[in-house]
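Write out this protein's structure.
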Amino acid sequence: MNIGNLVNQNSPSLHRNSSSIKGSLSHTVMIKFILLNVIYLFAAFNVSSGQMVQNPVADSVKIDIDSDSLSADDQSKPYRSEKTIGGHLLSLPSYLFHWVTRPVGFSFKKAEILLPRLFEGERGDYGVFPLIELGGDTGYSYGLLLFHNRPFYPNHSARIEALFSSSDYNDIDFEYTIDRFLSNKGRLEIDAAFANRPDRTFLFGNDTNFDDRSFYDRQDIEAALSYSYSLTDNTVLRFNTDYLRREINRSDRQTDEDVPVFPENLLGKQSLLSTGLLLAVDNARGVPRINRGSRLITDIQWSRSL
């Protein structure tokens, strides 16, 4: 086989490879030339501006300033940039927002001075919280929660919760607690409550339909007194006494003739007095949920209808 023919046959690819190599070399030389010119112009501009540049391609520029030539007033003045007219025009919306919201900021600062714990995210020694309750037979109710952790003495605390909806539904609870009562291990709790609410019941067993419910109105007055004493770190002995007065009346919501009428013999007033003793041994452990241990509660109650 003729070697010249092989060379001639492969010559087109060789020519293409050589031409591509020459094109890439020319592009590389052109890029290097442009970069060198940019660096030279940057260095020439810095030198003409009076800055001392040791290396034009260095990462940082060293500027020598004679601090002795500056006066004490110049050294004490903070740096301040002068804004142009165009900059002020562009900043006009931020100016307006600042002055419009300035009273709000002043109010928050004043509130922080008068009520330092208001924005700490922690409940203080006393306060008032609004309450809103949704659902149930009345639809909604509203009220207030008032509490004071030190009303008279540091170991006293009081709490009042009141909900109002209409003449058919009201709920008022009062709690007063005294820690270290009679001894450092004693605790006295006083509770009182008044509530009137609409209620319902099913009088025909578990096989009744939802439409067979019967309505009635209930009014409760309750008072409770309990004293707890810590025998050990996990054992508590508690004595309690409760008084409950309940009045059941016929409800005005029973308008459908097919709805069963509430029995007449269950209407009226009843009073109940209870007293008892409770012993609790708590060995349950687990954080944040209890997952091991034991808890033993023994309760003896005596009740009498008045």
